[in-house]
Amino acid sequence: MKRKNMLISCAAILLASLTACSSNRKAAVSESETDKQTVEAPPFDADSAYSYVQRQVDFGPRVPNTEAHRACGDYLAQKLEAFGAKVYNQQADLMAYDGTLLKARNIIGAYKPESKKRIALFAHWDCRPWADQDPDKRQRHTPIPGANDGASGVGVLLEIARLIGQQQPALGVDIILLDAEDYGAHNDYTGPRKEEFWCLGSQYWARNPHVPNYNARFGILLDMVGGHDAQFRYEGMSEEYARHINRKVWNVASSLGYGQYFVKEQGNYATDDHLFINQIARIPTIDIIAYSEEHDFFEHWHTLKDDMDAIDRNTLKAVGQTVLQVIFNED
Ligand code: AHN
Ligand code: ZN
């Protein structure tokens, strides 16, 4: 009797482990059909990323030609250096749409600079000089804190840089912090509006890369990646220029359990740095950018409320871990 019971339970355990085994294998196979995911990336520390966002915001609005901008630029270059990157400071005088001459600075941190196989990661680090979407009309010429619009993408990239400094993926990685993205025409401007008013730093970098004949397998731009309950959809320009990268990133996100952030639906079009990187530098580059049907990008976009209260560590984690997993699985 006892023996019989034991036999039965043994058989049950064997059966259970066999079925578990076969279903595991099935999951692994179907994943590898879409994307060969073999390497596990190091854990992205959302508290660390959050602290890098906070540090930037603490300087005050990082508007070109201000002291906060100069000081924050020095801080970013120094962080990349401390994380073991080869750092390039690209200074440029760029003319804004209103004739203002901007003392701009793109900051690049390169890992494995000698490697020909590369991935480029981008975010803009400057702030919009005016809260021209603020509900309070009197505030529409005040510069924004830029916690989500600017600092969030940079904060995620600094945390990625810290981790790459400890453990290198197979490919070389460039962390490219772009300036003067957000100096596009004020809402009150009555003249003709041009896309080229935005993204002055990326236009400059695309025409004058930090190393001659620079190329990368693909690029990922992070913009407004720290909002509460953020959702990211396939951005229109990214679909036109780098559809396969969109699919790769969104598939990795869902495999990591971040499907509620990375929604596999068409989003809107954004006039953003990736546009010029695709068109001028011809590096297939996607934009991971917050999408909202009711608000333009996120609730506090280009308002004074784009401050630390607008930042959610969970969103930083979803984006950072996904990007890390993508870059550690390239060979
Ligand atoms: C527009 O499409 C007008 N702006 C998207 C680019 C941007 C502004 N990203 C942050 N601020
Ligand atoms: Zn902006």
Describe the protein's architecture and organization.
This protein has 331 residues and is an alpha/beta fold. It has one domain: Zn peptidases (Aminopeptidase, 3-Layer(aba) Sandwich). The protein is 41% helix and 16% strand. It contains eight helices and eight strands. It has helices spanning 2-34, 46-58, 67-82, 147-166, 200-207, 236-255, 273-281, 313-328; strands at 86-95, 101-111, 118-124, 172-178, 218-223, 232-234, 262-266, 285-289. The strands form two sheets. Strands 1-2-4-3-5-8 form a six-stranded mixed beta sheet, with helices on both faces. The chain has a two-stranded parallel ribbon with strand order 6-7. Strand 1 (86-95) and strand 2 (101-111) form a beta hairpin. Residues 128, 149, 182, 302 line the site of zinc ion.
SSE layout and pairing:
Layout: H1 2-34, H2 46-58, H3 67-82, E1 86-95, E2 101-111, E3 118-124, H4 147-166, E4 172-178, H5 200-207, E5 218-223, E6 232-234, H6 236-255, E7 262-266, H7 273-281, E8 285-289, H8 313-328
Parallel strand pairs: 3-4, 3-5, 5-8, 6-7
Antiparallel strand pairs: 1-2, 2-4
The structure holds N-[2-(1H-imidazol-4-yl)ethyl]acetamide and zinc ion.
Keywords:
binds zinc ion; 8 strands; 331 residues; six-stranded mixed β-sheet; alpha/beta; Aminopeptidase; globular; disordered N terminus; 8 helices; binds N-[2-(1H-imidazol-4-yl)ethyl]acetamide
